[in-house]
């Protein structure tokens, strides 16, 4: 406006009465205004693109973080499931009962089923305490042999219903994935069973989606979770008598809620305290019918009571890679209003929130991994390492191809006539003998190597850096120490010991090393027991 006043003054005092200078200045002003608007538009477009790009990156990172929570937790369960299988199920006495149940007469099958249930009842009760939902044996034809959660239901064919059972038995390999079952849905860990090279069937250790929701809720208390599964999957798979455990999801057409999960989770999105969340999810589902129709994973940022909320929809697929369910997670974003008003500062705050959450996730993962690592690698009765851990120790000394990195000795010992101790003095005394032997071996191993319980009344010592003569002498010390040890109740205990060395020409790999020690141990038994054979 000041420029216009100056031009007008010049015009009035100028003897040349020409309007031309005024007209030129007006055009220049218009041009400057146009350029300014263009610049602001370009700057606004640049800022908006930066905002959109940052938001998309953030939303993608949040989706990755949500998936990481799920799969990290599943990895922990898988490690523990492997431990359960190796230490409690993949044992000869258990496999013998399965073999009888699969190949015996009807009476023999029924007897094997009862004995198997009795043999593993304590194990089943224990795994329930760690949020596992079921233990289920199947024949190699895919028929249910024994459901520990419903022992009265057996004989039904699962081969065409459960891909995990079909794959484990036709391909004879470990199978892991999500499935809806006749009674429960969940993530299945299915192992093929063999005895003396003969395929018997399979066994399943599984966790329910409810257990997974509970675990994530305890690790990440700010998250609100729920699980919905396609109603047609429930109709086609679940026993009709069990379908009452599901109800139509009021916020998600075509999907059902597992009532068991709703009753277990203290913070299900549709609990009374979180009832408004149902309408939030319903709105997102309605606005994204194309994505939900495809069964795609996605997330959305929305507002509830003036607070921004991030909602993740993680697609759950079965073993055929078909979408069957959604795991939905919600959490509030404390600085959420910034995104709502397109302020770029929010990008940094959200990234800081993500990285803080990521660091917290790693911390919680390491903590849980350490706890499960101790449990998975330790024999509970003796306190020694278990067979699973010892095999990892042997693997660490293996070279690529064949051979070993350094000389080492493997000492395998079996307590002589241990069954007689159990029969005459009871299992409690037998357990005491195992425990005392474990303590003695731990003391003897000291800094020389590692002692572990191999299984039953068998123990193993691994001595890296030992030559064969040194290892044999050490084994003799072990034998003498057991023979002279003052056991409870004045029992006289001896052990037969086999020794193998990585320097032996017939031990090019781990299995051969173990087999040689085992062979030598049985030579010691046949030669009269209480001997060392190398």
From TrEMBL:
Annotated GGDEF domain residues: 406-534
Domain of life, source organism: Bacteria
Keyword annotations of the record: Membrane, Transmembrane, Transmembrane helix
Keyword tRNA processing applies: no
UniProt-listed SUPFAM superfamilies: Nucleotide cyclase, Sensory domain-like
InterPro entries, per database record: dCache_3, Diguanylate_Cyclase, GGDEF_dom, Nucleotide_cyclase, Rev_trsase/Diguanyl_cyclase, Sensor-like_sf
Pfam families assigned: dCache_3, GGDEF
Tagged with keyword Transmembrane helix: yes
Segments crossing the lipid bilayer: 29-47
One annotated GO molecular function: diguanylate cyclase activity
Protein name according to UniProt: Diguanylate cyclase
Organism: Bacillus selenitireducens (strain ATCC 700615 / DSM 15326 / MLS10)
């Amino acid at each position: 406006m000041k420029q216009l006043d100056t031009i007008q003054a010049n015009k009035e005092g100028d003897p040349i009465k020409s309007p031309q200078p005024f007209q030129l200045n007006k055009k220049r002003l218009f041009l400057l205004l146009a350029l300014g608007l263009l610049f602001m538009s370009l700057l606004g477009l640049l800022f908006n693109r930066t905002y959109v790009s940052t938001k998309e990156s953030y939303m993608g990172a949040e989706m990755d973080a949500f998936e990481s929570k799920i799969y990290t937790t599943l990895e922990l369960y898988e490690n523990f499931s492997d431990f359960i299988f190796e230490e409690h199920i993949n044992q000869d006495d258990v496999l013998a009962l399965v073999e009888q149940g699969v190949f015996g007469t009807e009476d023999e099958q029924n007897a094997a089923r009862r004995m198997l249930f009795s043999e593993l009842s304590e194990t089943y009760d224990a795994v329930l305490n760690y949020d596992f939902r079921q233990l289920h044996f199947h024949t190699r034809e895919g028929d249910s042999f024994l459901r520990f959660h419903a022992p009265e239901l057996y004989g039904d064919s699962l081969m065409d219903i459960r891909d995990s059972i079909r794959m484990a038995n036709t391909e004879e390999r470990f199978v892991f994935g999500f499935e809806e079952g006749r009674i429960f849905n969940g993530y299945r860990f299915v192992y093929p069973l063999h005895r003396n090279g003969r395929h018997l069937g399979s066994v399943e250790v599984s966790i329910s989606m409810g257990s997974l929701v509970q675990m994530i809720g305890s690790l990440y208390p700010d998250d609100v979770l729920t699980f919905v599964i396609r109603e047609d999957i429930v109709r086609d798979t679940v026993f009709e008598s069990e379908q009452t455990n599901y109800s139509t999801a009021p916020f998600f057409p075509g999907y059902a809620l597992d009532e068991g999960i709703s009753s277990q989770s203290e913070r299900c999105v549709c609990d009374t305290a979180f009832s408004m969340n149902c309408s939030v999810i319903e709105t997102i589902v309605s606005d994204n019918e194309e994505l939900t129709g495809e069964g795609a994973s996605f997330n959305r940022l929305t507002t509830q009571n003036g607070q921004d909320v991030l909602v993740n929809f993680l697609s759950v697929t079965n073993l055929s890679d078909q979408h069957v369910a959604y795991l939905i997670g919600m959490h509030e974003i404390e600085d959420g209003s910034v995104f709502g008003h397109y302020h770029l500062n929010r990008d940094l705050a959200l990234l800081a929130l993500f990285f803080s959450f990521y660091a917290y996730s790693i911390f919680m993962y390491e903590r849980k991994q350490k706890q499960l690592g101790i449990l998975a690698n330790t024999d509970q009765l003796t306190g020694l390492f278990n067979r699973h851990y010892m095999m990892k120790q042997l693997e660490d000394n293996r070279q690529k191809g064949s051979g070993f990195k350094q000389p080492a000795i493997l000492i395998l010992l079996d307590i002589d006539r241990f069954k007689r101790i159990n029969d005459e003095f009871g299992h409690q005394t037998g357990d005491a003998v195992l425990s005392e032997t474990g303590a003695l071996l731990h003391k003897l191993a000291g800094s020389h190597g590692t002692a572990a319980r191999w299984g039953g009344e068998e123990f193993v010592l691994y001595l890296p850096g030992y030559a064969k003569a040194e290892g044999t002498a050490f084994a003799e010390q072990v034998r003498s120490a057991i023979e002279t040890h003052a056991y409870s109740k004045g029992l006289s205990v001896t052990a037969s010991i086999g020794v193998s060395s990585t320097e032996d020409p017939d031990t090019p790999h781990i299995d051969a090393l173990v087999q040689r020690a085992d062979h030598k141990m049985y030579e010691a038994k046949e030669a009269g027991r209480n001997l060392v054979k190398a």
